[in-house]
Amino acid sequence: MSSTKISYKVGFIGAGNMAKAIGNGILVSETIKAEDIIISAPSDRNLAFWKEKGVRTTHDNAEVITFADIVFIAVKPQYFAGMIEGLKTTKLSVSKPMCFVSIMVGRTVKSVKEVLETVKGISGPFEVIKVMPNTPSMVGTGCSVMVSDKSSVFSSVVRQIMELTGVCEEIPESLMNACGALSGSGPAYLYMVIEALADGGVKLGIPRDLSYRLAAQTMSGAGKMVMESGKHPGVLKDEVCSPGGSTITGVHELEKSGLRAAFMNAITAAAERSEQLGK
Questions:
Q1: How far apart are CA 81 and CA 99, in angstroms?
Q2: Domains in the chain, start-ordered, CATH in brackets?
Q3: Partners of 102 in the beta sheet?
Q4: pLDDT tens digits for 168-200?
């Protein structure tokens, strides 16, 4: 697999699942050579995968910033302050133009930039881009949203990187927490749907492994129908529901249980929590 080559060096501060998904997308596509990627983590445990791929690894976040042109900040928001304080104690000194890509929930572009500006060792011009990926990015079917300034020098490259893991939509920052609650948190809710469908199948005598496969493929196929048919989900639902049939009877039970309201409430609650985490 090959794609348009990227001439920038890329770094990751944090080696969790999202960093792994994005970095692996780069490696599989061969858009950036392994030796032009660096990743840091506090322990060797999270770096083993990268060492096997030939990626440069370190425990020093300052080394990542010194080496890379584009740095993904892939730490949890509650650890960001500690990361910054750590950088202030190093001999970091960079004056090159660069880009920081934050995947931290709740943190605005402005707040991340203001905090990075307190690090005296970063003296050159830099921009901050916000990206919110989701876990299906780990299998190349992710859905990411991205916020960048219209004058951004790096936005097209960052979007290219994110599209290696699935789709990437540019949005206004005012929608970031809402989109994060939908596409970022959404997989967890849909995994629960798959589990519940499979449990229903097991209750009726379907072996569990078969029930999981049927439920997961049904979910995947339904999503593909929405994406490729161009039809409203309600229309597609109606096409499955025969008058007086079994499907509309099941739909009636879901409506009685408040399914729609439960999902809407979950998205709202997740967005509100993201707002809290950013304060």
A1: 19
A2: 10-173 (3.40.50.720), 186-277 (1.10.3730.10)
A3: 73, 130
A4: 999 999 999 999 999 999 999 999 999 999 999
14 known member of a binding site: yes
Residue 23 assigned to a binding site: no
239 residue type, one letter: E
- Residue 136 among known ligand-binding residues: no
Write the CB contacts of 105 (distance below 8 Å, at least 6 apart in sequence): 76, 77, 132, 180, 184, 274, 277, 278
146 annotated as belonging to a binding site for a ligand: no
- The answer to whether residues 32 and 6 touch, using CB atoms and an 8 Å cutoff, is yes
Q: Residue 16, annotated ligand binder? A: yes
Residue 33 DSSP SS3: coil
φ, ψ at 72 (rounded to 5°): -85, 120
Residue 51 counted as an annotated binding residue: no
Coil, strand or helix at 254: helix
Determine the Cα–Cα distance for residues 70 and 26; give it in Å rounded to an integer. Answer: 13
Query: For the segment 126-177, what is each residue's pLDDT rounded down to a tens digit?
Result: 999 999 999 899 888 999 999 998 778 899 999 999 999 999 999 999 999 9
Under the banding of pLDDT at 50, 70 and 90, the label for residue 3 is: low
Please tell me the distance from the alpha carbon of residue 65 to that of residue 212, in angstroms, as a whole number.
43
**Does the annotation flag 17 for ligand binding?**
yes
Alpha carbons 147 and 141: distance in angstroms, whole number: 20
- Please tell me whether 198 is known to bind a ligand: no
Give the global pTM: 0.86
74 marked ligand binding residue: yes
